[in-house]
Design brief:
- The chain is α/β, with parallel strands linked by helices.
- It has three domains: about 60 residues, no CATH class; about 240 residues, P-loop containing nucleotide triphosphate hydrolases (Rossmann fold, 3-Layer(aba) Sandwich), CATH 3.40.50.300; about 80 residues, Arc Repressor Mutant, subunit A.
- The protein has eleven helices and 19 strands.
- The strands form five sheets. Strands 9-8-10-11-7-12-13-14-15-16 form a ten-stranded mixed sheet. A three-stranded antiparallel sheet has the order 17-19-18.
- The N terminus is likely disordered.
């Protein structure tokens, strides 16, 4: 295997000048497909790292046989003609760079991130902002079971499925401080055509086992690994991180992390209202924010027949810091709410509680009506119906009181 050689710009441009900068892959750490590997898996062939050598005098003097990068001088007009900045999420996340989303434990980071990832993978608007559809890879290092339920909750909430070939997950261990792991991940994404997209690493703590986040040395190694990974795969690398004991101080760990980031988003919660706020945007405006709540969703039954639940994001519009009612999201939510409205309107007047009061239906009848609207397998439809009704209540489209349902 040939060694990569550091090249320097020669003193004068000529036919041998290559205007495209080269970023060679270290040849001693390359994951290669193996004939015996299953399903396109990669097995690492690792050779000892070559000793770095300074450029030869021939290169310094300008060897005609060498292809070396050349510097290009740009005028103000040249800069003005460069392509404009592009966004994954308009004015929130850039298409390329290194960023972080952080917040205290329990603030809803992962739920919000999954909603964000689905939006980018599908190219749908997110909190009223345009997105660019690109491949998304979610490195979930905090447990497969919990991640599975959260994805299921999103699917039920949004009446859909994740884009199969554009949103993919990795749940195996990963170590940012190991060049072997970093290289293997880069090779995996490149070979699958998932470069120039969004890579989410959830969380920094799990991705750097044993590292001391408070020291400049370890944090510097983490930053360097993330930037090298981003150079290899392109797109945006997004870390998920926590606050420290004092949440007002922002990201946990050494301050060099914040300084190195292109974009930083904070997640916070007050009561039932969650918010995301753009704390740093190197190439745009800071302070952009959005509000959301978390709807509890039943995703199935455990081995004892008890409900399994998770949560999904419900976008909120706020008026003076308080959530206002947002239109129902998803086809089934709209159809079910319409069906309930029609059923309540059709009730005989003598079924009203008292003069001037609102008609209401028994909760079990509403579940049955919703399951009929959904159709398909009865048990599955009933479980999904219960989750949607609970969700419509959380969104303040329905009032449920003493096992009776009415409209606001």
């Amino acid at each position: 295997m040939k060694s990569a050689r550091l090249q320097t710009a020669q003193t004068s441009a000529g036919d041998n000048c290559d205007s495209t900068p080269a970023f060679p892959v270290p040849p001693h750490k390359i994951a290669k497909p193996h004939n015996g590997a299953l399903n396109g898996a990669f097995i690492l062939d690792v050779e000892p790292a070559p000793t770095a050598q300074p450029p030869s005098p021939q290169v310094r003097a300008g060897n005609p046989a060498e292809k070396v990068p050349c510097y290009r001088l740009l005028s103000a007009s040249d800069l003005a003609d460069l392509p404009p900045l592009t966004w994954l999420i308009r004015n929130v996340l850039p298409t390329t760079g290194f960023g972080a989303i952080f917040g205290a434990s329990g603030c809803g980071k992962t739920f919000m991130l999954l909603d964000l990832c689905h939006a980018i993978a599908a190219g749908r608007d997110w909190f009223g902002r345009r997105t660019k559809a690109v491949p998304v890879v979610y490195l979930g290092l905090e447990g497969e079971a919990g991640l599975k339920q959260r994805v299921q909750a999103w699917q039920i909430q949004n009446d859909g499925v994740a884009p199969e070939k554009r949103l993919l997950f990795i749940t195996q261990p990963f170590d940012l401080l190991s060049p072997i792991y970093v290289n293997a991940l880069a090779e995996c994404l490149l070979s699958a055509g998932l470069n120039n997209g969004l890579l989410v690493i959830d969380t920094l703590n799990r991705a750097a086992p044993g590292a001391d986040e408070n020291t400049s040395t370890d944090m510097g190694r983490i930053i360097q690994a993330c930037k090298e990974l981003q150079q290899r795969i392109g797109g945006l690398v997004l870390l998920v991180h926590h606050t420290g004991k004092d949440s007002s101080k922002g990201l946990r760990g050494h301050s060099s992390l914040y300084a190195s980031l292109d974009v930083v988003v904070e997640i916070a919660v007050s009561g039932t209202l969650h918010t995301w706020t753009l704390m740093k945007n190197k190439d745009g405006k800071d302070g952009i924010s959005g509000a959301f709540s978390l709807a509890e969703i039943e995703v199935g039954l455990d081995e004892d027949g008890e409900p399994l639940t998770s949560c999904a994001v419900v976008e909120e519009q706020t008026v003076e810091g308080k959530p206002s009612v947002k239109p129902p999201g998803g086809k089934n939510q709209k159809l079910i709410l319409d069906a309930i409205g029609q059923a309540l309107a059709a009730l005989p007047l003598d079924q009203a509680n008292e003069p001037g009061s609102k008609n209401r239906m028994a909760l079990e009848d509403v579940h049955a009506l919703a399951a009929k609207v959904i159709g398909g397998d009865p048990s599955r439809a009933h479980a999904q119906a219960k989750s949607i009704i609970k969700n419509l209540k959380a969104q303040r489209h329905l009032i449920i009181d003493a096992d009776y349902v009415s409209l606001p």
